[in-house]
């Protein structure tokens, strides 16, 4: 089986460096002309997407597809955390009001998108566990992601019943469970996402090392 360490070859590092330089230069230029924040996000992502797609495809080919799915899940969820961090910065550092603090891609900050996104996370983690059942970090991630999805099930139900978005849900301040925690919804959901993403990234590294050194064990067959 092809070793995943082959990704360290110099040509691939050169492509990675070029993509990062192009993304940084594009964002810097767009910021200099005061482009909208969503345009900064697009300019920063476009040079990186081919690199990330190639990494996922090569990983999938080397590991019968499953570690490629793991990589895609970890990268997309990490990017999602970045959106939440930008929103918190807009609220707490820039002093924007809630209606003007929607992260980089504000058009996607709607209840349906949050609900579908968290559904994807739970489904993907559950699928990975059918293959990597010995990965302890996936077992840590699953209940955290399931609880987060439960919050969004409640939020989408309230939205469908009332037509209003931005409700506190279960545990944000003013929430349905005992009035919630002393955290506004943006901070609470940032905490949820960080709690899911940290074990997910650790689990990816754990699985990556096992696949490199003991492929059969990593697949849960040994």
Question: Describe it for me?
Answer:
- The chain is an all-alpha fold and 222 residues long.
- It has 2 domains: 1-62; 63-218.
- Helix content is 70%, strand content 0%.
- It has 8 helices and no strands.
- It has helices at residues 10-32, 37-45, 48-62, 66-93, 111-131, 136-162, 185-213, 215-218.
- Helix 1 (10-32) runs antiparallel to helix 2 and helix 5 (111-131) runs antiparallel to helix 6 (136-162).
- The radius of gyration is 19 Å and the shape is globular.
- The model is unreliable at 5-10, 19-23 and 25-33 (pLDDT under 50).
User: What is the mean predicted local confidence, pLDDT?
Assistant: 78
Shape: globular
Helix content: over 70%
Beta-strand fraction estimate? under 5%
Summed up, the helix count is: 8
Protein structure class: mainly alpha
Low-confidence stretches: 5-10, 19-23, 25-33
Number of domains: 2
Q: Order of helices and strands, N to C?
A: HHHHHHHH
| Tally of DSSP β-strands | 0
Radius of gyration: 19 Å
* N→C terminal distance: 16 Å
Largest sheet: none
Short description:
The protein is mainly alpha-helical and 222 residues long. The chain contains 8 helices and no strands.
């Amino acid at each position: 089986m092809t070793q995943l360490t082959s990704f360290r070859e110099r040509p691939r590092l050169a492509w990675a460096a070029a993509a990062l330089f192009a993304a940084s230069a594009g964002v810097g230029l767009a910021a200099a002309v005061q482009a909208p924040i969503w345009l900064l996000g697009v300019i920063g992502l476009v040079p990186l997407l081919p690199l990330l797609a190639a990494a996922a495809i090569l990983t999938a080919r080397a590991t019968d597809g499953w570690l490629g799915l793991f990589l895609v899940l970890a990268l997309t969820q990490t990017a999602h955390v970045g959106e939440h961090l930008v929103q918190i910065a807009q609220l707490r550092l820039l002093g924007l009001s809630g209606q003007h603090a929607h992260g980089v891609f504000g058009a996607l900050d709607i209840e349906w998108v949050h609900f579908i996104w968290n559904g994807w996370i739970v489904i993907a983690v559950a699928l990975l566990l059918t293959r990597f059942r010995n990965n302890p970090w996936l077992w840590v991630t699953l209940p955290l992601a399931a609880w987060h999805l439960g919050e969004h099930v409640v939020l989408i139900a309230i939205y469908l019943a009332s037509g209003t978005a931005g409700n506190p849900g279960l545990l944000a301040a003013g929430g349905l469970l005992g009035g919630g925690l002393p955290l506004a919804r943006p901070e609470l959901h940032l905490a949820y996402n960080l709690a899911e993403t940290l074990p997910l990234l650790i689990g990816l590294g754990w699985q990556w090392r096992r696949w490199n050194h003991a492929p059969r064990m990593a697949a849960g067959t040994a």
